[in-house]
Structures are given as C-alpha cells and as structure tokens.
C-alpha cells in the first residue's frame, strides 16, 4: 500500500473543514447574526469536519486492512503452489520484466523472487545459451497470436545444476502502450524428462533385445562355418597366393560380424544378471588387461587411480568388465594420435546412500554437445562402418541400469570426455 493515502485524507479533511468554515462565515454575514451564532456555526462546522474525518479515516483503514489481508492470502496461495507463479511483461520496445514472482523462485531457480522482480536479466542469464533462440521464438509467437505460451527449456542454477523447466502462461489483452502481460507458472520437470528419456531408451533396448535373440542365434551358426572355412583355407594357401588377401578379408570381416553378434547376444543376456559380491578394482584390472595391448599400439598412456579399499558391490563381473572395456575402447578410438586414458575408482554418495564410482577419462576429441543426447542409443555411431557398430555405449548403459546404477558423460570437444558409472553399494544379505 502506498504511503500517499493518509496524506490525501488530510488534504480532503482540511478541504472539508475549510468549506464548513466558509459556509458558517457566509451564513453569519448574510443572516447578520451575532457572534454567538458565529461560534455555534464554527463549532458545528468543526464537529461536522470531525465526524467526516473520522469516517473517512475509518473507511480508509478498513480498506487497507482488507487489501493487505487479501494480498497475504494471495501470497500464501502462490507460495504454496509447487513451482513459481509469475507475471511477466513485454513492452513494445522489447523491454522485459517480471511484475510479480512468487517465493518458490528461490527453490526453482536458485535466485530470489525479489532479485527477479528487480532485475529481469538475473533470470534470463540462467538460460542455457542453446535454448535461448527457441524460447525467444515461442514468446514472440504468443505475443503475436495472443495464444497461451507453453515452453520447455533448460537453466543452469547458480549452484551449477542443470534443470528442465516448463513454463506456461496466458497473455492478457495488450495495454494501450502496446505492452503485454502474461500470468503463468514455472515448474521443474527435470525428473520427468529423465524418466521419459529412460523409458525411450528402455523401449529401444527391448526392441534390440528381441531382435538380438531372434537374429543373432540364426546368424551365429552360419557365421561360424564361414569363419572356420576361411581360416582353414587361409592356412592352406602359400604366401603370395592371389587368394590369400581375399581369404584374410573374409576372416577379418567374419570376425567383425561375430563381434557384432556377440554384442547383440549380450543385450539379450543383459537382463539376466546373476550377481555376486565383487571387488570393483579387480573387475577394472581384468578389463584393462584386455585393453592394454591396444593402448600400447595407439600410443595411449594408461593411468590407473584405483581406491585401495572400496566396498564390495553386488554385480555380474563379466558384464561390468564389458562396461569398462566398451568405455575404454571408445576412449582409445577418440585418441587416434595418442593421449591419456585414466581409469579411476572411488567412493561416492548417491541419493544420500553409499555408492562406488568408476570414471573412464580420455584426452581425446570430445563429443559435440548436439550429439551427446544420442550416444547411448543403440546403433548410433559416428565411426565409419568398418569401425563402429554403435552398440558399445548402449550395452554399457543397459548393464549399468540393470545393476541399479547410472551412467553420465561430461565432455568438451577438443579436450576429452569423462564417463562416470555409479553403482549402489548393497549390503550383502539385504
Ligand atoms: N570417449 C569418447 N570420445 C569421443 N566420442 C565418443 C566417446 N565415447 C563414445 N563416443 C561417441 O559415441 C558414439 C557411440 O559410441 P558406441 O556406442 O560405443 O558406438 P561405436 O563405438 O561403435 O561408435 C561413438 O561413435 C562416438 O561418436
Ligand atoms: Mg564403442
């Protein structure tokens, strides 16, 4: 409430007093009464003024109280709504501001409602740069059509957390100066987004699993025959024979197909995890012994930072080895001119519970931001047909998921990538 109101009432009441004095004075002059009548007039005028003044003051106070009560009620309601209620204004010169922001903003954006109301830029700065053009376009469309605005975008909170936000609001009719005001709500949909992505991923995995069990078995046997005959024939041709090269090619390609089939079969088995207590460092060591030869050839330095006393995890050893091998192979592929492959194991906390983490870091090419969301998809590869199947990460993801863990990637093009695998520590017997 503005502080101008009481002052206005003083003016109004002084005006009333003045008028009543004047009226009394004129009545006295024209009626040519004595001073007694003047006094009576003055007193009754003052009384009239007093009554009017108290009445006006009482009404004003009552109105202020009611307004404050309804404002408080509105605040309580908007504060209780999960998310942030807001009123946003776009002026015809393009200037933007929040006219009102509910207190939920602090939880949602990590920036207080007061800061957002005072400085619109403090909210705008949270947006991920790549999401800005689409957001601007959606606001423009809503302003032009005056249709409700609904948009999903990402922010990075001051604490560094990436969140998915869904904004929805309804524009009011444009004001005389051309500015438009929207009333709406922002909500956090990060969990839903992750869940959706996981559902899509598991649907794809299920499809691949079905495909795998159906086709892989069929291919496996004839492939074995091709490979066997090619190897036997290659052994019997003398060096320099014209047939040597074609036979070696058949053998090499058949081996590659076998790899693919093995991967597909691994998919159909990923669901059936026979788990046993295992030491993560041993798993990593075994996997690395299989990768070591390749790292030497590619001039990749292998660095191990294994925590000496990790808690035992319940897992399928062969599958976890597969995860480390797949991640390491990708890391080596990403460093065609050499580099450093670091494998790290450590304790960590996940959802307030004890967990263990494996990190596979490389100093390679990195992964462009636009393809990062796709790398875990089955058959997604950027490698030429003879080098990549696009199944390595999809399989690793599936295995980690089946173990109740999660896998994330952090990558910067030109600098390298870090793949993190986090596994819960389940106490044996639970
Ligand atoms: N460490 C890494 N560095 C750079 N790019 C990577 C890395 N790991 C995975 N990728 C990208 O992810 C894609 C999918 O990987 P993956 O599923 O293992 O299939 P593939 O290795 O057969 O291509 C790769 O083609 C590559 O573009
Ligand atoms: Mg791979």
Termini separation comes to 61 Å
Percent helix, as a range, is: 40-55%
Distinct ligand kinds = adenosine-5'-diphosphate, magnesium ion
Provide mean pLDDT, rounded: 87
Count of separate DSSP helical elements: 11
Indicate how many domains the architecture comprises.
Answer: 4
Count of extended strands: 12
Largest sheet: 5 strands, antiparallel
- What's the CATH first level of the largest domain? Alpha Beta
Strand composition percent: 15-25%
SSE pattern: HHEEHHHHEEEHHEHEEHEEHEE
CATH superfamily of the largest domain: Histidine kinase-like ATPase, C-terminal domain
Low-pLDDT windows of residues? none
* CATH topology category name of the largest domain: Heat Shock Protein 90
Structural class assignment: alpha+beta
* Biggest sheet strand line-up: 2-1-5-4-3
Q: Rough shape?
A: elongated
Q: Which features would summarize this protein structure in a list?
A:
430 residues; alpha+beta; Beta-Lactamase; Helix Hairpins; 5-stranded antiparallel beta sheet; 5-stranded mixed beta sheet; elongated; binds adenosine-5'-diphosphate; binds magnesium ion
């Amino acid at each position: 409430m503005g502080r101008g109101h009481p002052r206005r009432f003083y003016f109004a009441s002084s005006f009333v007093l003045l008028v009543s004095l004047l009226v009394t004075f004129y009545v006295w002059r024209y009626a040519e009464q004595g001073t007694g009548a003047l006094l009576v007039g003055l007193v009754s005028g003052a009384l009239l003024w007093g009554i009017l003044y108290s009445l006006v003051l009482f009404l004003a106070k009552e109105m202020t109280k009611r307004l404050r009560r309804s404002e408080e009620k509105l605040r309580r309601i908007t504060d209780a709504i999960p998310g942030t209620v807001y009123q946003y204004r776009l002026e015809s010169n393009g200037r933007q501001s929040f006219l009102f922001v509910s207190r939920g903003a602090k939880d949602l954006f990590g920036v207080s409602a007061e800061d957002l109301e005072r400085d619109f830029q403090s909210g705008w700065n949270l947006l991920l740069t790549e999401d800005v053009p689409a957001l601007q376009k959606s606001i423009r469309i809503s302003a032009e059509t005056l249709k409700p605005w609904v948009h999903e975008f990402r922010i990075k909170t001051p604490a560094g957390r990436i969140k998915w936000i869904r904004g929805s609001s309804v524009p009011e009719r444009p004001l005389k100066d051309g500015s438009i005001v929207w009333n709406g709500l922002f909500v956090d949909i990060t969990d839903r987004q992750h869940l959706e992505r996981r559902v899509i991923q598991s649907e794809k995995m299920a499809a691949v699993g079905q495909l795998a069990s159906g086709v892989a078995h069929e291919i496996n046997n004839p492939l074995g025959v091709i490979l066997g005959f090619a190897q036997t024939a290659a052994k019997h041709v003398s060096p320099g024979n014209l047939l040597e090269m074609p036979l070696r090619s058949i053998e090499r390609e058949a081996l590659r197909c076998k790899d693919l089939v093995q991967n597909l079969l691994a998919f159909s088995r990923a669901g059936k995890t026979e788990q046993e207590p295992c030491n993560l460092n041993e798993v990593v060591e075994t996997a690395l012994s299989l990768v070591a030869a390749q790292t030497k050839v590619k001039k990749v330095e292998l660095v191990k930072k294994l925590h000496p006393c990790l808690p035992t995890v319940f897992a399928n050893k062969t599958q976890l080895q597969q995860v480390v091998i797949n991640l390491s192979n990708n890391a080596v592929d990403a460093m065609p001119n050499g580099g450093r492959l670091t494998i790290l194991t450590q304790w960590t906390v996940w959802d307030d519970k004890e967990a263990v983490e494996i990190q596979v870091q490389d100093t390679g090419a990195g992964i462009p931001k636009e393809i990062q969301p796709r790398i875990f998809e089955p058959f997604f590869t950027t490698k030429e047909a003879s080098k990549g199947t696009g199944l390595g990460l999809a399989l690793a993801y599936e295995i980690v998921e089946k173990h109740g863990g999660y896998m994330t990637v952090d990558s910067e093009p030109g600098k390298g990538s870090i793949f993190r695998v986090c596994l819960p520590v389940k106490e044996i017997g639970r």
